[in-house]
Amino acid sequence: MSLDRPLTRNVRADRSPTDMAAYEANGGYQGLKAAVGKLSPADCLEILKDSNLRGRGGAGFPTGMKWSFVPMGDKCSPGDKYLICNADEMEPGTFKDRLLLECDPHQLIEGMIVAAYTLQANVAYIFIRAEYFKAAALLREAIAACHQKNYLGNNILGSDYSLEIHIHASAGRYICGEETALISSLEGKRANPRAKPPFPQVSGLWGRPTIVNNVETLCNVHHIIERGADWFKSLGLTEDAGTKMYGVSGRVKRPGCWELPMGTPVREILEEYAGGMADGYSLKGFLPGGGSTDFLVGEHLDLAMDYETIGKAGSRMGTGTMIILDDKTCPVGFVKNLIEFFARESCGFCTPCRDGLPWSAQVLDDIQHGRGRDEDMDTLARQVKFIGAIGNTHCALAPGAMEPLQSAMKYFPEAFEQHIQGSCRHCSGGGH
Amino acid sequence: MPTIRIDGVEYEVQAGKNLLESCLSLGLDLPYFCWHPAMGSIGACRQCAVVQYQSEEDEQAGRGRIVMGCMTPVSDGAIFSLDGDRAREFREAIVESLMLNHPHDCPVCAEGGECHLQDMTVMVGHRDRHYRGRKNTHRNQYLGPLLNHEMNRCIACYRCTRYYRDYAGGTDLAAMAAHDHVYFGRHEEGILESEFAGNLVEVCPTGVFTDKTLVHDYTRKWDLQSAPSVCVGCGVGCNTLPGERYGRLKRIHNRFNVEVNGYFLCDRGRFGGGFVNNQQRLDYPGLRGDDGRYNAVDHHQALQHMAEACRNARVAAIGSPRTSIEANFLLRQLVGTDNFCPGFTELEQTLVNLALELQQQSSAVIADIRSVESADAVLILGEDLTNTAPRLALAVRQSVRNKAYEMAAGLGLETWQDAAIRNLAQDRRSPLFIAASGDTRLDDVAEQHLSLAPQDVARLGFEVAAAIRGGGGVGNSDTAAGRIAAALMEAKRPLVISGTSSGSPQALQAAAAVAEALAGAGHRPMLNFTVPEANSLGQAMLTGSAAPSLEAIAERCDRGEIDTLLVLENDLYHRTPAALADRLLHSDSAIIAVDGLDNRTTSAARLVLPAANFAETEGTLVSLEGRAQRHYPVFLPQGERRPSWVWLLACMKELGHPTATDLHQFDDITRACAATVPALAGITGAAPDHHFLNVGVKIPRQPHRYSGRTAMRADISVHEPKQPEDEESPLAFSMEGLNRWQPGALLPFVWAPGWNSNQSLHRFQSEVGGPLRGGTAGMRLLGAGTTGPTAAIDPPPSFTPVEGRWQLVARHRIFGSEELSALSPGICELVEPGFVEMRGADAHGLGLTEGDGVELDAGLATLAVKINDSIPPGCLGYAVGHAGTANLAAGASVSLAKATNWQRPPQVISTDRSGGGHV
Amino acid sequence: MTETTSMQLVPTLSEEELRLIDAEIAHVPYRSAVAIDALKIVQQHRGWVSDESIKAIASYLDMSADELDGIATFYNLIFRRPVGDKVILLCNSISCWIKGCDGLQQKITEQLGVQFGETTSDNRYTLLPVTCLGACDKAPVMMVGEELHEDVAESSIVRILGGSTEP
Ligand SMILES: Cc1cc2nc3c(=O)[nH]c(=O)nc-3n(C[C@H](O)[C@H](O)[C@H](O)COP(=O)(O)O)c2cc1C
Ligand code: SF4
Ligand code: FES
């Protein structure tokens, strides 16, 4: 049992799922047994706060702090709050939650039980994207197995705590991953995000206190409760504790996803784990954590992959799954693909996103296809300013969409210029 | 009051507001789209952006961040910039984005010239277009005869669906699709179901939803002549702004009155004025010759004849509860109190006077619309408000949200945080209980709807009152009365509503008893009664309960005691069963009818005097809450049409009537009436008299861009004719004068520099959403009484169905139950053929299915059957005011038989199925 | 009234569909909250969601067809038009784009004669783009029905799609 890789210790090379027996044989449900009925919810919360766990869904918000906003005890009638697992993974270039869900479904369930116990929620939902059929089936099996063992259901293991977990398979749309849009969708509505405040912690699902956490975040919870905050902190190389699921996609030798100590340097991930750039390709830049993070370039390779460090370098660690831009792929096409994605996935609620993103995509399309004009760069710069700041739009989708564009304009201005002048060396050949 | 700083200037603002409304209240221009003063904020359009600084250092350093004014509470010491480049550039970019797909079809758009999008485009200074792509286009839908749909103009502010669904409770309009494909429409084409759909015309900030009846007869806002008016569609008395051009009423917009109708009208009010242009309009006096045919006469001759018929004769008169106090008062002066019938049947007279007396006595607060909206528990006895007093129903619909506001307050959310509060409260509502004889259009938000025969509705009310008084019954959750009593007792602002529409005096008494019981238990309850018509209550105040009813007059006709019967603006065939109307109109008395439209009553008259309608004359009306309100002519009647009061005054002068000596002008009549009738003493306060000058000048009916008077008449003469003088009011038939700062009753249109749309209203309000700067229009004539009703009243016996007999219960329809609006274009297409409603089991027993014909009491009426299981057992609903139902009266007992030779009435085929309209 | 209308319309939903919808309703505080689940259930049984289905589901959930249609048309995996027996979801997000999803799309178009949004004339396949499928390390990827195909090469399209439906 590998204690320094808690999240993936059950992940097999062939990615076959771990069932209840295998999971328990490898120390599974010990966190549940240590917590439910043994520790008070308040104690669990303290441990979690101490652990420095930060949300793995992209924003990196400290999980313990988020939970501490939920009204507890007398301030909230029992059963009147909800825990939701965000398994909507659709961020372009992100493929870490799928791995956790498909290889070790029980781990998520155990994390959710301990999390729900800490919050004293009696109902929890897993909001899973429509296309994850296999994961949804495995989770259903895992839930059924838990009911048989009384890890779920009434009076879990003889305690006075009860919990049901329901699975909601989505019907598409990237915006559902945004936590308040997710809540709208779970309520059976159009997935329009909601303004904050009020935060879901006080008014979420059905107007009740609600916590939304990412799959990876929740998978950590019972490990922390079982082994303690210090153990968790010791796993990370930097301030941001624990391990992290890092991934690399693009033209590298071994694209993939690995659990590594938080703060592992970018170069190590890229070269040791992903095997370096594929033959014949060299690195031009990379998005550190999914399609809505800013480009970093070669000079950033030695930075530690954690929230702080990557943030200071002008980007965000996001989901921790890097997308590599190689020297033979056109940056203009690259960002156009992303902006088109975000334009298509806009929920259509607020103006800058709904109308601004399609315009940006249109300009990029013009540029890409040789219809660009010099003033288009000004237009794009204005769009970045207009759409790109949190608060300008109703939710974070559109500002996120602007991150790769603005940084591409900063790091690869020549790519845009060449296109406008009709001489892109990537695209003249007809490929990317 | 918090102090905030905007661009270096400190302002005191009201706590609990958002920055956008605060700015507008301060007179600062901050553009917006999705926010609406009545609907709060959602932060969708991002148009109201400003920069907020955390501190002074922040400001000096030029940091700060963009926030939405509508989503930002004003807190003491907050620092903002509206004028800084960043905020300005952002706001311009928003309009530019909205314009990407906007068709720029302003020249052919019905919204042009009063378009909020145009105003905001100019306000943010957006001019140059950078976008080179294609525009998205949409298909439009047919939404019925009242509204036009042109989706390409949409800017996706979500106001339409928020208004239609969240505010008005409609279900058949929704936001469809996502990203830049969002579409606002119906699942399928079809007539919009909400009775309040017309407000979309004013809610939509651009030209997606426009008034179809206007589009077909179009005039721009700046070319409309308009004047403050009052809706004559029902007893609520909503304030309106009718607009005229070329002697035709073009459209009706809402006139804001914070206590009566706020920002919204119902569709009867908005579209129901079209009868003014009806082809049955009478333009010349007509005198019936010996051959039975009418000859047009001029007004001198007409007056001669009228005076002749009144001189030395036994004269009686029938007034009208849908026309002004002044006309009715003059008529009463002319014929004498004993000979003046207010125009009520006996039952109506009882009901309306009871409604008046109970309110006069009650210690409850007679609720205005704001109070209704503030109620946190409501009991409605015997009313389908949406069809009998529609605007009141819309207010009750808001009242159920008080539960949500209460929950929101617990989280520190301000009431304007609309989406957040809806998400928080979900379907939790303040209690609304409805007891009525069949389903009502507020059932969807009611905690409980009880379908009971009218007697039992009243009984329930008395039981609730007893439970409250007895204390013990309260909280007895086994009985409906116990639950209702408990909910009312628990509330801070309980409201009881009943009315005359079910024809049950006991329902009124029961409602008053509940209010009294609440008052006795230490509450300050609110009470509201609906009445049938725009001036029903005024008429009761004028005449009291002792005045002769129509039946009493008929008896005198039968006995040959009346030589001349004057009928004022009242089609008796619409109001009473044909038998009674026949007795009144086809006796030996000579009938003189004063009316605006040709109808069966005028056809029975010897002399017909064409009367100006509400849009052509001034008048005072008393609404259901006892508010005297003045309406003004929007334009002058053409031909020989005269206001009724002018005819009557002239006749009295002709006769040398003593009480007319000192009467010369309209104001004189109002004053004389106030001096003569104690209950109406307050009516002179309804509006300033004709001497009033606004900073030395009159108030214009025409906006200063009013154009083309000369061109309008170019085929006759290129010389501009002198505009008519208005000697009767402080308003002028011209663009000269001053439309600002005047009393609230004298607001002829809303316009302010930079604000061509109706959103300019905030410039006339003391604060956004608050009363007009010049004060709230109208004068309340009912204060809270103190005594409460004196006599204890026994509940009526409960209703027991009799085998083979059915008790008629009145079923009202917003379109069709009211006489004049049903003659208006658009609405006339929505009026159903007459029908009766019965339970499926009853129909089955008689071998009837939906659409079959049924004969009532051998020949009384034959009508189409509708199956409705909400009708109480033993009862039969009938469509009040509809074709074929004139002989039916609520409470009557009838037998039923399947009609032989029944032909299903033809479906009304719409005259216009085109979705997108062109001007 | 609502009940009588729903009684008339419900029969258009099968017992199996109703049973599955009821099971969802058990987890939520009000019926309309299962709108999306119900749409998916019906779609699973019928392949797509017709206007009639919208009306039937809406009345069963005590909501208006208009409101339900607003929800149905929001979500890209609710099909308001008929689709083929299998839906091909071709990922065209960034990692798959880098690895040549455009080429795959062309290949599929050649093979089946359909563009994005279209259904083959034999009704076997509908081709749709989809957001990042969370398998970027195996890019380019696509789903056919419920099956995920990883590291798809243009040359394997024929094999995956069964080699039929030449245009
Ligand atoms: C447009 C958008 C899409 C998002 N998609 C996801 C997602 O698919 N999965 C996820 O866990 N978080 C996603 N998030 C972040 C969530 O809003 C939320 O912050 C997260 O689920 C919280 O979990 P955590 O605290 O455990 O990170 C998204 C955010 C935005 C703005
Ligand atoms: S930024 Fe606005 S339109 Fe875009 S997804 Fe968020 S709320 Fe919807
Ligand atoms: S008015 Fe403030 S965002 Fe629309």
From TrEMBL, chain A:
InterPro entries: NADH-UbQ_OxRdtase_51kDa_CS, NADH-UbQ_OxRdtase_suF, Nuo51_FMN-bd, Nuo51_FMN-bd_sf, Nuop51_4Fe4S-bd, Nuop51_4Fe4S-bd_sf, Soluble_ligand-bd
Main enzyme class: translocase
Entry's Gene Ontology molecular function annotations: 4 iron, 4 sulfur cluster binding; FMN binding; metal ion binding; NAD binding; NADH dehydrogenase (ubiquinone) activity; oxidoreductase activity; quinone binding
Presence of keyword Flavoprotein: yes
Keywords attached to this entry: 4Fe-4S, Flavoprotein, FMN, Iron, Iron-sulfur, Metal-binding, NAD, Oxidoreductase, Quinone, Translocase
Needed cofactors: FMN; [4Fe-4S] cluster
Enzyme Commission number: 7.1.1.-
Domain NADH-ubiquinone oxidoreductase 51kDa subunit iron-sulphur binding as annotated: residue spans: 332-377
Source superkingdom: Bacteria
Catalysed conversion reaction: a quinone + NADH + 5 H(+)(in) = a quinol + NAD(+) + 4 H(+)(out)
Stretches that traverse the bilayer: none
Self-association state and partner proteins as the record states: Composed of 13 different subunits. Subunits NuoCD, E, F, and G constitute the peripheral sector of the complex.
Protein family according to the UniProt entry: Belongs to the complex I 51 kDa subunit family.
Name of protein: NADH-quinone oxidoreductase subunit F
Automatic annotation (TrEMBL), chain B:
Sequence ranges assigned to domain 4Fe-4S His(Cys)3-ligated-type in this UniProt record: 86-125
InterPro entries for the chain: 2Fe-2S_ferredoxin-like_sf, 2Fe-2S_ferredoxin-type, Asp_de-COase-like_dom_sf, Mopterin_OxRdtase, Mopterin_OxRdtase_4Fe-4S_dom, NADH_UbQ_OxRdtase_75kDa_su_CS, NADH_UbQ_OxRdtase_ferredoxin, NADH_UbQ_OxRdtase_Gsu
Swiss-Prot/TrEMBL keywords: 2Fe-2S, 4Fe-4S, Iron, Iron-sulfur, Metal-binding, NAD, Oxidoreductase, Quinone, Translocase, Ubiquinone
Residues in 4Fe-4S Mo/W bis-MGD-type domain copies: 224-280
GO biological process assignments: ATP synthesis coupled electron transport
Cofactor: [4Fe-4S] cluster; [2Fe-2S] cluster
One Gene Ontology molecular-function label: 2 iron, 2 sulfur cluster binding
Residue span(s) of domain 2Fe-2S ferredoxin-type: 1-86
Superkingdom field: Bacteria
Cellular component terms (Gene Ontology): membrane
Catalysed reaction equations from the record: a quinone + NADH + 5 H(+)(in) = a quinol + NAD(+) + 4 H(+)(out)
Subunit relationships: Composed of 13 different subunits. Subunits NuoCD, E, F, and G constitute the peripheral sector of the complex.
Similarity remark: Belongs to the complex I 75 kDa subunit family.
Protein name: NADH-quinone oxidoreductase subunit G
Organism lineage string: Bacteria, Pseudomonadati, Pseudomonadota, Gammaproteobacteria, Cellvibrionales
Name of the encoding gene: nuoG
UniProtKB/TrEMBL annotation, chain C:
Keywords: 2Fe-2S, Iron, Iron-sulfur, Metal-binding, Oxidoreductase
Entry-linked SUPFAM superfamilies: Thioredoxin-like
Cofactor: how bound: Binds 1 [2Fe-2S] cluster.
Organism domain of life: Bacteria
Pfam family, one: 2Fe-2S_thioredx
One GO molecular-function entry: NADH dehydrogenase activity
Amino-acid positions noted as binding [2Fe-2S] cluster in the UniProt annotation, renumbered to this chain: 91, 96, 132, 136
Necessary cofactors: [2Fe-2S] cluster
Keyword Signal annotated: no
Similarity section: Belongs to the complex I 24 kDa subunit family.
Subunit structure and binding partners: Composed of 13 different subunits. Subunits NuoCD, E, F, and G constitute the peripheral sector of the complex.
The protein's name in its UniProt record: NADH-quinone oxidoreductase subunit E
The organism's taxonomic lineage, starting at the top: Bacteria, Pseudomonadati, Pseudomonadota, Gammaproteobacteria, Cellvibrionales
